[in-house]
Specification:
This protein is α+β, with helices and mostly antiparallel strands. It is built from 10 helices and 8 strands.
Length: 314
């Protein structure tokens, strides 16, 4: 992968015609965050463990959590949820280096959601930092949880601590296969082109495979929610699983992604996109909850689409 990343820095010659051009339909995006790590190794604890167990001090390690804070936990959870519920949900995999593929049609929604998330992240950080000095003094006074392992040097001043928090969201264009302008021998250029073509093709295949997987998971959830239970209520009426509008909202997001990011011109993906649009646009969960016939018809319709999805090796 490192070699492929280096190759991306090279500039342009004619692109290889059998590789789809996606530079106008998608971008690369990288998201990451950093948070103050509060779990630290402690030599005193290590020696105590070794002494009490008879183990060699080089074979054990004593660690302590120097700051158990609900506000710090909230920061971690919020950042992780942003990664999972926004970044991963709206993008597709591209490389092992953390880059993800973002359809340009979804760029506005992604930027807006991430901008709002970043603002909330820094609010949570500042909220934590506002209580930080007090929290440290309380831990020192009460020796809470740490006992004799408390060490004031574990706690940096607030201005230093703020720098341990970070948020980054970087976007870049996708380099085409033929991006080369080096004064190299023909054999070397051909070899480099072939290496990046392999990387480029496998990355597109992985992205499309992930999109198919998301669609399959979503449709399986829909059919499960639409299907009847193996029981009836006290009046003898059929019981059904609970319907959640969020699942249908996810379907509409995926339909848009399939339409806007069909990178290989896959005719099956185009056909499934049309089928899902016909089946799910305008569907009201309230209507399905109160109309058993419509619910069962929709279940059969979605199940048929699900049954005809590509297997992807499953």
């Amino acid at each position: 992968m490192e070699q492929a990343n280096n190759i991306q820095q090279l500039a342009a010659a004619p692109a290889i015609s059998n590789i789809p051009s996606i530079s106008s339909s998608a971008m690369l995006v990288e998201f990451g965050f950093s948070i103050w790590g509060t779990k630290k190794q402690d030599k005193t604890a290590t020696k105590a463990i070794a002494s009490s167990t008879g183990a060699d001090a080089e074979s054990v390690e004593g660690r302590k959590d120097i700051m158990r804070s609900d506000k710090l936990t909230a920061i971690r959870k919020f950042a992780a949820n942003t990664r999972n519920q926004i970044h991963y949900r709206l993008t597709l995999p591209w490389s092992d280096m953390g880059l993800r593929l973002l359809p340009t049609a979804g760029l506005f929604d992604y930027q807006q959601a991430m901008s709002e998330a970043e603002q909330e992240y820094w609010k949570l950080v500042e909220d934590f930092l506002s209580d930080y000095d007090f929290d440290v003094s309380q831990r020192q006074a009460e020796a809470e949880n740490l006992g004799t392992l408390f060490n004031s040097r574990d706690y940096p001043p607030t201005d230093v601590l703020r720098e341990k928090f970070g948020w980054r969201c970087i976007m870049s264009h996708i380099p085409e296969v033929g991006d080369f302008r080096l004064d190299l021998q023909t054999e070397a250029v051909d070899a480099i082109k072939q290496q990046y073509e392999d990387f480029y093709t496998s990355s597109i295949d992985a992205a499309m495979g992930e999109l198919w997987r998301k669609v399959r998971d979503n449709l399986e959830t829909i059919t499960r929610q639409l299907s009847p239970k193996d029981e009836v209520d006290d009046n003898g009426d059929q019981k059904y699983n609970k319907l959640y509008q969020s699942v249908f909202d996810t379907s509409l997001e995926l339909i848009g992604m399939m339409r806007d990011c069909n990178l290989t011109g896959d005719t099956q993906m185009a056909a499934v996109t049309s089928q899902l649009e016909d089946a799910l646009y305008g569907v009201s969960t309230d209507m399905l909850k109160h109309n058993e016939t419509a619910r069962l018809d929709k279940h059969r319709e979605v199940q048929k689409i699900l049954d005809n999805l590509p297997s992807l090796g499953m």
